[in-house]
TrEMBL record:
It comes from Flavobacterium laiguense. GO terms for cellular component: cytosol. One of its GO terms (biological process) is fatty acid biosynthetic process. Residues 40-170 form the Beta-ketoacyl synthase-like N-terminal domain. Keywords: Transferase. Gene3D superfamilies: 3.40.47.10. One of its GO terms (molecular function) is 3-oxoacyl-[acyl-carrier-protein] synthase activity. This is 3-oxoacyl-ACP synthase. Transmembrane segments: none annotated. The keyword NADP does not apply.
Length: 354
């Protein structure tokens, strides 16, 4: 079977993750319940005429994918695979509002057409004139892991030699108001909103787009190798350690072989029990990393987590702003990423230095 190498990265997030090395310009915002994006100059990537018709998720997806392809020195790919939880929710809201405002009459279909979950993948393909395999996964908090697993399998089976894979989600004003109403987003006027050691329910929400150019060939500029990806629907807190040990064992690795673990803490006191249990026992002697205090929580935030993990391997250092303990290693060869939300949609990703 062919191996899977990450040869290019592109990330748009609540931090300046473009035109930088690795989070040296990161800013910690503990005062807002919804984090806004640090956006690039879109007209540098997209024709100005097209920009005004695109939702921010589409624009961010196009920019992030373009950055990944440029980084990998690729003109096109054999497949485009995306993951998203909410899709282009902004256009969905526009269309539903138009239905109500116009009494279901005289509706223009533009917002409806652009509100589908596969809009980002389609727009990227149109820009590249890529008529190859194009699929979007909408699987909640493992949407990105589903896309990554599909991409890895296609490369392993020698069905493709290069795949563009990414995770994209955006926020919408009305949807955010509903999330606040049901308590999914933390209550206002309770700042600072810390992620580690939080004592309240709810999360600080965010949005973003992260893309990875995968190839079956190791190159001079390769970042890391994807060893394995596993998805599980539901686990109890006490069962996670056994699943991780089995996952590592299937790759001929043990807990002691993991040089760093990237955990998806999101500040929800109940959801974070899964991570705290691992941090205090299984990985007590392992450098630990967290990232959602920088990106916010959203369905494909794990794509930002993978970007962080890959950067750690490439730069062989962990920035202070993402450390959740003080342990360090002389070298970071193997990194495990684990993400879940409220005990469901568990994703495990294992990456290593090339």
């Amino acid at each position: 079977m062919k191996k899977t190498y990450i040869n290019g990265l592109g990330c748009i997030s609540a931090q300046k993750t473009f035109d930088t090395v690795f989070l040296e310009e990161a800013e910690l915002n503990e005062n807002d319940t919804i984090l806004s994006l640090k956006v690039p100059v879109y007209k540098d990537f997209i024709p100005p005429v097209a920009i005004r018709r695109m939702a921010k998720g589409v624009k961010n997806g196009i920019v992030a994918s373009t950055l990944a392809l440029r980084d990998a020195q690729l003109e096109t790919v054999d497949a485009i695979i995306t993951g998203t939880g909410m899709g282009c929710i902004e256009d969905s809201e526009k269309f539903l509002k138009a239905i109500l405002d116009n009494n279901e009459q005289f509706l223009t279909p533009t917002s409806f057409i652009q509100s589908t979950h596969n809009t980002v993948g389609g727009q990227i393909a149109l820009g590249l004139q890529c008529k190859a395999y194009n699929l979007t996964y909408v699987n909640g908090s493992v949407s990105f892991e589903s896309a990554l697993l599909d991409a890895k399998m296609k490369i392993e089976e020698e069905d493709t030699s290069s795949v563009l894979v990414g995770g994209i989600d955006e926020t919408g004003d009305y949807t955010m108001s509903l999330f606040k109403l049901i308590g999914f987003i933390k209550e206002e006027n309770q700042s600072p909103y810390t992620v580690l050691n939080s004592t309240t329910k709810g999360v600080v929400f965010g949005e973003g787009a992260a893309f990875f150019a995968l190839e079956n060939e190791k190159k001079e500029h390769s970042y890391a190798e994807i060893l394995d990806v596993e998805i599980l629907n539901k686990l109890e807190v006490q069962d996670v350690e056994k699943r991780i040990i089995a996952f590592l064992d299937s790759n001929d690795l043990a807990i002691t072989d993991v040089d760093a673990v990237v955990l998806g803490y999101n500040g929800d006191v109940e959801s974070d029990l899964y991570y705290k249990d691992l941090a205090d026992s299984t990985f007590a002697n392992t450098p630990q990393v967290y990232y959602k205090h920088l990106s916010g929580e959203y369905d494909t935030a794990s794509a930002f987590g993978l970007w962080v993990g890959v950067k750690i391997i490439k730069n062989q250092t962990i920035p202070e702003i993402v450390k959740s303990n003080s342990l360090e290693k002389s070298a970071y060869k193997t990194i495990l990423l684990y993400n879940q939300r409220n005990g469901i949609d568990h994703g495990f990703t294992l990456i290593s230095r090339c």
